[in-house]
Specification:
3 helices, 0% strand
């Protein structure tokens, strides 16, 4: 099994070297590539309308949750759920 891994690694290295030789990036192309990547980044930034759409979506989800579960989703105190806590380092009760 170790021999097979060595063979596969050697083949992978060989193909990586071939790929690097085939697709060489010259330094002259880097500014153009940087400009293209910057344009892609800027066009994918969220717009103000995206934030408004998100707020509307959250509002609709909240309304659906209220219809399904009612208005009692909040928990005022966790004491009835977690009557005791245990300190993580000493394992003693709080």
């Amino acid at each position: 099994m170790a021999l097979r891994e060595k063979v596969l690694r050697k083949k992978a290295q060989k193909f990586e070297l071939k790929g690097l030789q085939k697709h060489k990036v010259t330094m002259g192309y880097i500014p153009a590539l940087e400009e293209i990547l910057h344009e892609i980044h800027v066009t994918n930034l969220p717009k103000p309308s995206d934030y408004d759409n998100r707020k509307d979506l959250v509002r609709v989800f909240n309304e659906i949750a209220k219809e399904i579960y009612g208005n009692f989703l909040y928990i005022t105190s966790l004491n009835h759920i977690l009557p005791q806590c245990i300190h993580a380092m000493s394992f003693s009760y709080c």
